[in-house]
Amino acid sequence: MIIREKQHPLELGGQRGTLDRITWTFPHQEAVIKPGELHGDLDTGRAGAGHVIQVGDSYRMYYWATGSDGYHHICLAETSVDQPNGWKSYLG
């Protein structure tokens, strides 16, 4: 679930203004990305430590993963801003 907060006060270097802010909340214990759900063998062992950035009208999540081969990987998932919980593997 995402809660959007608009017009958050900001002061930086003596300048005052506002900043739009998004607060991400997780109301349940279920994983956002389950191991093996998006990248098959690349993230079947573990998936976690996601970092989300907005790129245009979508969100991209970079996260670490451990594959079935035991090697560690950096994976990428993407979703639209309008459907923030609809993560799909990003293949470029």
Topology:
Layout: E1 2-12, E2 15-24, E3 46-55, E4 58-66, E5 72-80, E6 88-89
Antiparallel strand pairs: 1-2, 3-4, 4-5, 5-6
Write up this protein.
The protein has strands at 2-12, 15-24, 46-55, 58-66, 72-80, 88-89. The protein is mostly beta strands and 92 residues long. The protein has a domain at 28-89. The strands form 2 sheets. A 4-stranded antiparallel beta sheet has the order 3-4-5-6, with no helix packed on it. It has a two-stranded antiparallel sheet with strand order 1-2. Strand 3 (46-55) and strand 4 (58-66) form a beta hairpin. It is elongated, with a radius of gyration of 16 Å.
Give a short summary of the structure.
The protein has 92 residues and is an all-beta fold.
List segments where confidence is low: pLDDT < 50 over at least 5 consecutive residues: none
What value does the Rg take, in angstroms?
Answer: 16 Å
Task: Quote the distance from N terminus to C terminus.
Answer: 26 Å
Main sheet summary:
4 strands, antiparallel
Q: SS-based structural class? A: mainly beta
Arithmetic mean pLDDT: 78
State the helical fraction. under 10%
Widest beta sheet: strand line-up = 3-4-5-6
Number of helices: 0
Hey, roughly how much beta strand do the residues contain? over 45%
Order of helices and strands: EEEEEE
Keyphrases for this structure?
0% helix, elongated, two-stranded antiparallel sheet, single chain, 4-stranded antiparallel β-sheet, mainly beta, 92 residues
